[in-house]
């Protein structure tokens, strides 16, 4: 009893004024929409490396998600290709821009999750194709530099204010921000909000609700860019013939034994033409942060009615050894796609005898043969519906 008198009751009485202010609305407890509108977008590109044209950088993605005539292509370093068969280039040259690509190196599952979650209200029936690189699963997930680059402050702000987004999704962001806290050079109010939301302690919840009032929200002008009429290649377009043409073209520029374009191979070996295959090291699925990020990305897309498809890139078996070590993760990736009835093109092969030359230009980046397969997949699954 003496403990209650000395410690507990004084603490309760100290909190009482705050509770009364909260109850009387003297301390605000809900979000207020800020008068910040994002409207300007003068760009008409088919590929956007990131969203750093603040704050209008997200508008091309928003408009592509809203358009029933457009496929959103998300990926990492492979999208830096200048190939005419890169989907956003290939389909544009065959009738109009109906594929818009977003991303470059290190744009991985968690950043994609945050970017798309911030546009939750535009995900219903959106057509999204995500290129999944096995290299992501050699890492500990999205690094802090990539997160800061791709997940803009206005995106975090809108997630924080969106009451239709479940706490589980917000906690997941908070847990990530707590993990990388020491890597960040500065903390924005939105970041601090999510860090507080990573814990279920009542006082932290209370503080995060107060902090929410300091975070503006952003409204996007509803003046969607007309992306043109629906266009797709005819069903009888001969993809196999094109495949053979592109394989022959690759063979003409590959004289080495490693199925790599000669110019790239010379660069890899400093002109010596000597190369020792590397062993890849994947983290098991249950311990793999990237895999957990991939799972919540799929769960979120399914919950909000998106219509994504996935392409799993291969690694070059002439450049890397022990590719079967990816099998555990690969099987679970395919299982996750199957769970939600998401279509998936699996290009991953572990054996040289099953690998098609030209699928990749080097050890891990898509070549024209590979892009031809991706284009066929996009055309048949997302444009002839």
Q: Compute the number of strand runs.
A: 10
The total domain count is 1
Poorly predicted runs are 20-35, 224-230
Report how far apart the termini are.
72 Å
Shape: globular
Percentage beta strand? 5-15%
Please identify, by name, the CATH architecture.
3-Layer(aba) Sandwich
Q: What level of helicity do the residues show?
A: 40-55%
Per the CATH scheme, the topology name is: Rossmann fold
Order of helices and strands: HEEHEHEHEHHHHHEHHEHEEHEH
By secondary-structure content and strand pairing, the structural class works out as alpha/beta
Task: Describe the 3D structure.
- This protein has 14 helices and 10 strands.
- It has helices at residues 2-23, 59-66, 87-93, 109-117, 144-150, 153-161, 167-179, 189-197, 202-212, 239-251, 262-269, 289-303, 327-339, 368-383, and strands at 37-38, 47-48, 71-74, 99-102, 127-132, 219-220, 278-279, 307-312, 320-321, 344-346.
- The termini are far apart.
Gist of the model:
The protein has 14 helices and 10 strands.
What characteristics describe this protein?
385 residues, alpha/beta, Rossmann fold, six-stranded parallel sheet, two-stranded parallel ribbon, 14 helices, 10 strands, globular
Explain the layout of strands and helices.
Blueprint lengths: L1 H22 L13 E2 L8 E2 L10 H8 L4 E4 L12 H7 L5 E4 L6 H9 L9 E6 L11 H7 L2 H9 L5 H13 L9 H9 L4 H11 L6 E2 L18 H13 L10 H8 L8 E2 L9 H15 L3 E6 L7 E2 L5 H13 L4 E3 L21 H16 L2
Parallel strand pairs: 1-6, 2-4, 3-4, 3-5, 5-8, 7-9, 8-10
Helix pairs in contact: 4-12, 6-8, 7-8, 8-9, 10-14, 12-13
């Amino acid at each position: 009893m003496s403990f209650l008198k000395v410690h507990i009751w004084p603490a309760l009485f100290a909190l009482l004024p705050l509770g009364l202010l909260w109850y009387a609305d003297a301390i605000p407890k809900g979000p207020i929409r800020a008068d910040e509108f994002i409207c300007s977008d003068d760009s008409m590109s088919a590929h956007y490396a990131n969203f750093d044209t603040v704050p209008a950088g997200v508008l091309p993605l928003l408009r592509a998600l809203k358009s029933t005539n457009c496929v959103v292509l998300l990926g990492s370093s492979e999208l830096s290709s200048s190939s005419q068969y890169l989907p956003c280039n290939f389909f544009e040259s065959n009738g109009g821009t109906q594929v818009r690509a977003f991303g470059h190196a290190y744009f991985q599952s968690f950043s994609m999750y945050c970017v798309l979650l911030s546009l939750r209200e535009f995900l219903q029936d959106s057509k999204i194709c995500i290129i999944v690189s096995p290299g992501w699963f050699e890492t500990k997930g999205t690094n802090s530099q990539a997160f800061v680059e791709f997940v803009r402050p206005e995106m975090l702000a809108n997630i924080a204010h969106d009451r239709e987004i479940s706490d589980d999704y917000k906690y997941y962001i908070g847990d990530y921000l707590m993990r990388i806290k020491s890597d960040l050079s500065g903390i924005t109010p939105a970041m601090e909000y999510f860090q507080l939301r990573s814990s279920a302690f009542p006082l932290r919840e209370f503080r995060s609700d107060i902090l929410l009032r300091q975070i503006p929200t952003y409204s996007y002008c509803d003046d969607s860019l007309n992306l043109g009429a629906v266009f797709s290649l005819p069903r009888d377009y001969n993809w196999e013939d094109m495949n053979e043409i592109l394989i022959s073209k690759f063979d003409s520029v590959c004289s080495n034994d490693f199925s790599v374009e000669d110019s790239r191979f010379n660069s890899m070996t400093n002109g010596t033409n000597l190369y020792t295959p590397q062993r890849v090291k994947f983290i098991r699925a249950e311990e793999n942060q990237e895999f957990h990020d991939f799972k919540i990305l799929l769960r979120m897309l399914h919950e909000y009615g998106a219509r994504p498809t996935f392409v799993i890139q291969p690694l070059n078996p002439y450049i890397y050894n022990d590719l079967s070590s990816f099998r555990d993760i690969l099987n679970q990736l395919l299982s996750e796609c199957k769970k939600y009835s998401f279509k998936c093109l699996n290009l991953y092969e572990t054996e040289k005898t099953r690998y098609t030359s030209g699928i990749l230009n080097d050890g891990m980046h898509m070549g024209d043969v590979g892009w031809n397969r991706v284009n066929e997949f996009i055309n048949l699954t997302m444009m002839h519906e």
